[in-house]
Amino acid sequence: MYPDRVVSGMRPTGSMHLGHYHGALKNWIKMQTELPCLFFVADWHALTTHYDDPAVIERSTWDMVVDWLAAGIDPTQSTIFIQSRVPEHAELHLLLSMATPLGWLERVPTYKDQIENLANKDLATYGFLGYPLLQAADVLIYRASQVPVGEDQVPHIEMMREIARRFNHLYGKEKGFEEKAQEAVKKLGSKRAKLYNELRTEYQQDGKEEALAQAKAMLDDAQSLSMGDRERLFGYLEGSRKLILVEPQARLTEASRLPGLDGRKMSKSYGNAIALREDKDSVTKKIKTMPTDPARVRRTDAGDPSRCPVWQFHQVYSGLPTQEWVVKGCKSAGIGCIECKQPVIDAIIREQEPMHERAQPYLDDPSLVRAIVADGNEAARRLAQEAMRDVREAMGLGYS
Length: 400
Ligand code: TRP
Ligand code: SF4
Fold this sequence. Notes:
Layout: E1 6-10, H1 18-31, E2 37-41, H2 43-50, H3 54-71, E3 78-82, H4 88-97, H5 102-106, H6 109-117, H7 126-129, H8 131-140, E4 146-149, H9 154-171, H10 177-186, H11 190-206, H12 209-221, H13 227-238, E5 249-252, H14 280-288, H15 309-317, H16 320-331, H17 337-364, H18 367-394
Parallel strand pairs: 1-2, 2-3, 4-5
The structure holds tryptophan (TRP) and iron/sulfur cluster.
């Protein structure tokens, strides 16, 4: 009913590194060629944990957009914007908060985890508890069908789906819905109307998912319907409600996961990261000094790749022949660690070359970045305002 659309965001809390590239950005870059995408800087989300350090947010916001562009997010294909420049996200967050049970937020796994992990920060705040609801507003406001995220975010997407379902249930009632829906069925023409009713019955009585899918496909093809009738017919298939918000799906990153230099998760705060646009010499030095299998004290000691973070880099960066060369050479002490690291150094530098190139014009003229984001803000805002009109009306706030 609503067009397929992708939405995702990142928190501007520091500079981007290769872990972000392999863990998330590569997935975004692929998706932008498949569907319309909106990517945003989640600056309000950053404030939920960095409310006492807002300076880092401003700096990271612009750096992050340059990093996205450098990595290959194409502003002619994707909409790039900043969350706080589309204040409708906050309005939807507020409205959703009215009917969101506290328990839903308290049982989100990241809530308790983060409070424990970031014990040096006071996260017993209203904003932090509301984080996943703000995230729900970010996505639902664009009626997005897909959200590329990492595994840790899947419970947030689950909650979004529940929020959307509950919203449609509470506010998708329309006076005379049943009658209006039946009028709309007639407008399909007698053959299609008959099929629609049969499929609806099959789905509602027997829970046949294929019947639902078939009916939806038929509606997609029915060109002559008005937007309102189309929504009613989609809603009527599944129950007796209009669908105002869309339940999104998580699109997991097939993680070619890149750890940090020490084998732990790559993170700037661990000091084990390679920045997305790190310069060549620094990359070379970092890889050359990165730890290897501790059992290989001398060049003649045999090693075991499974105990070595360099091997994890080979798994991301090297083809099979090189990988075989590493395993054989390491286990037999046939190669030294410096030798083993060279293909990784070369591959990272090769990967980063086009990134440096793409970033250069934006570094030379930062107003280009500002202009891209200004356009994105405007485009996102138009979509958000459209949805908010429906939401306000559904919640009885449509007076003028
Ligand atoms: N919570 C996400 C993270 O920490 C960032 C985020 C905010 C997001 N809003 C979003 C991701 C909406 C996807 C969709 O990584
Ligand atoms: Fe690690 Fe390669 Fe050295 Fe083996 S040879 S310990 S895989 S760096």
